[in-house]
Amino acid sequence: MVSRAANWLMVVGVVGAFIGLCVLPSALGDHQDGNLLSVAALLLSLGALSISVGFYMKARFLQKDVRSGKPEPPRKIRGGCDLCRNEPPVIQCKVHQLHLCATCLTGHYDVRSCVYVPSLRRPATKNGKNTAAKAQSV
After folding, report:
1. What span, in angstroms and rounded, lies between the C-alpha atoms of 91 and 101?
2. What gap in Å lies between CA 102 and CA 90, rounded to an integer?
3. Helix, strand, or coil here: 88?
């Protein structure tokens, strides 16, 4: 509703500014008329004001839809990388005993001191009643 009203305000503003620009040459022609110049300036300024109010209303309307601006932190994965806990690990540093994802490996990589092996840790799955029920039914 507010967005539609803002659109209409912008359309009315554009039409008003256009009429003001059309009247302006007649006010500045051979027969200069101060009243026509005032009308042209009035129409042009009211049109610009109407356009800006439309943009303002639209921005305020859209601002309510946008969240606080803080990005949501990524979900933590159980059994994930020991550093970021966001991605599943792909490799383990045997020296530091760290399971690392591909992203964290680039920052941890040191050929001289670290020994890497493929990570055997898998992302944790829900081992609840469903798994027990499936095991008993077989």
Report:
1. 7
2. 6
3. coil
